[in-house]
Each structure stands twice: as structure tokens, then as C-alpha cells.
Write a structure and sequence with these properties.
- The protein is α+β, with helices and mostly antiparallel strands.
- Helix content is about 20%, strand content about 30%.
- The termini are far apart.
Length: about 190
Amino acid sequence: MATFRRFRPDDIDKFSKCNLDPLTETYDLSFYLQYYSKWPSLFQVAEDPRGNIIGYIMGKLESSPDFFKYSEHYLPWHAHITALTVAPEARRLGIGTILSENLEISAEAADAWFVDLFVRKSNTRAIKFYENMGYSVYRVVKDYYGDNVNDPTAHGEDAYDMRKPCSRDKTWKHIRDDGRKHEVQPEDVF
């Protein structure tokens, strides 16, 4: 049984079970603490009965800067999942789903248009997980990831920008059915 709570700075010392997965992005200490200070309600952990962190989600609420306002790539107020990971021994127990749903509840409370995330195109398990939760591919970001876990000789790996509409987006203005056909460059993404 897992308990869910807000992240605390001393949790970083307990992330290793989660961050050993090669598809999990690992950040420096200041990055985690920035999320903790700016968006504490969107940074949650799952803890096992022994106090081990067996999953976490880092999210934020944002919109594109004003100078993007008239760009086709402008993003209105939305929630973003920066990282979601579950330790291998705790997968398939619903922990990722609960963490994601908690973030979606916060997004709704903040009147966001949608929740988005980036996922490696090769991470088929994560893509399926998000699709089962109602996310769809909005666009492909070419060479978003600087490395390619499947081919170290390649320049980078594409990402899917996946989105799930919030109740504010009644007409699904920020969702599209043919997202895999829309390619953008990393500099087009805020």
C-alpha cells in the first residue's frame, strides 16, 4: 500500500529506485527545488510503508510568454507534467494513474485549458499509459531529446507532445486527432 503526499526536500535522497530507469529524466538538485518552491501542490510522491519513495510526479502551471502571444505555437494557461516515474517493483499498481489524476485535479482547480507532457517517441509503454488516461498526441517535437536511448549514434530522439483537455476546453481547441502528422522544432516549443 502506498501513501501519497507532497514532496519534501529530503525526499531527493530517496529517489534512486525511481531514477534508475533509463527512460526517466534525472535533474540536478536546483531543478527539483525550483519545482518544490514554485509549484508545491504539483510535486507529489508515493511512499511505501517503509518510507521509500516508489513514485513521483513533478508538474507546473504556465503559459507561453507574451511575445509568443501571436505565434501559432502559443500555449495558453495549462498544466505540464515534467516528470512522472514509478519504481520498477511498484509498477502496474495504479500509482502512476493516481499521481497523474491528482495533478489533473489541481489543473482543473487552476482553470487550466489542458494538461500536457513530453514523452520519447520510443517509450511505447508510457505512450499507451497516457492514451489509456485520455491523452493524445498533439504534435511531434523533432530531436527534442539530446540523446537517443535506442541508437547512441543518432543525433537525438523525437518527443510526442501529448495533451488531455480540461473541462475549460469545451470545444477541444487545444487537442487534435492527427497530432502525429504535425512536426515542430524544439525552438518552437515553450
